[in-house]
Design a protein that fits this description.
By secondary structure, the protein is mainly β. It has a single domain, classed as Thrombin, subunit H. Helices cover about 10% and strands about 40% of the residues. This is Peptidase S1.
């Protein structure tokens, strides 16, 4: 494989958290995208589910950067991320979907981990690779505030596409994945990284690596979690990022829920004491 999307996305994915007055904390997942400004200046953008920021009442949150020593040892190095100026949100929200984007000043060594915007799926990506129900995708996140290790890396899990059809995104803005969703998963990238998939109408194989979307909700019925995640198409991440370059700024409109019998956004509130570094048992 020429490149490994799984490793690249692990490095670009960060935990977002804010302690609350009752000793619990709001936790979510985000990932960094490299998208230069219209005049070509480098720019790093954090994307996450809009409801993650909506449920953080204070002006600042923590973004879980990681740094590597000269000896190659990783350590968790969270930094303060200002998300409000008084009551005014500093992030932009997609006008119809649960997606938010904010420009961040990441440490230079971490800004390099941001993935190119071009890695996000386009409108025709699913049809191009003949993807559909049963195909396996992967997801990164911090379920219930847990990380993979003390360095703060996200946990990688997988699930199968559980709905049909997947495209066009303008008609089907979300799709389902057979995947248990927990508080802390919201905003994490969902992606496909297959090293060898047969080309449609051919005996030849091809690499299939792209970010399919963002985990934003879970499916519930009568208060029961059905262990099904709702993924918002990457198209709407692209649109949210594009709003950053609108001169007057985007309208701050609450994202509409997916049209399913019963859904719920992950609550993203973890009832444990906030600590300075993520461990296995946060």
């Amino acid at each position: 494989m020429a490149w490994d999307l799984s490793v690249d996305l692990i490095q670009a994915t960060v935990q977002l958290e804010q302690p609350l007055a009752d000793g619990s904390r709001t936790v979510g997942t985000g990932f960094l995208i490299e998208d230069p400004t219209p005049d070509g200046r480098p720019r790093t953008i954090l994307v996450t589910a809009a409801h993650v920021f909506d449920r953080m009442p204070s002006v600042s949150a923590k973004i879980g950067y990681r740094v590597q020593s000269k000896e190659g040892v990783w350590r968790y190095d969270p930094r303060t991320l200002k998300i409000r100026d008084g009551d005014h949100p500093l992030w932009i929200k997609h006008p119809s979907r649960d997606v938010a984007a904010i420009v961040v000043e990441a440490p230079p060594e971490f800004a390099k981990a941001a993935i190119p915007l071009a890695w996000l799926a386009q409108d025709d990506t699913f049809n191009k690779y003949s993807l559909g129900p049963g195909d396996e995708m992967m997801a990164l996140g911090f379920p219930r505030g847990l990380s993979a290790n003390t360095a703060g890396f996200p946990i990688l899990r997988s699930g199968r596409v559980a709905s049909y059809p997947l495209a066009p995104a303008s008609v089907f803005p979300t799709f389902l994945m057979d995947f248990s969703v927990f508080p802390g998963n919201s905003g994490g990238p969902v992606f496909m990284a297959e090293g060898a998939r047969r080309r449609p109408g051919s005996t030849e194989s091809q690499e299939v690596q792209f970010v399919a979307g963002m985990l934003t909700q879970q499916v519930e019925l009568s208060g029961e979690r059905l262990e099904i995640g709702i993924v918002t198409h990457a198209k709407y991440i692209r649109e949210a990022v594009a709003l950053l370059d609108k001169p007057s700024g985007p309208p701050l409109i609450q994202a509409a829920p997916a049209k399913l019998p019963s859904t719920a956004a992950a609550q993203d509130v973890v009832a444990v004491q906030a600590v300075a570094a993520p461990g296995f048992n946060r």
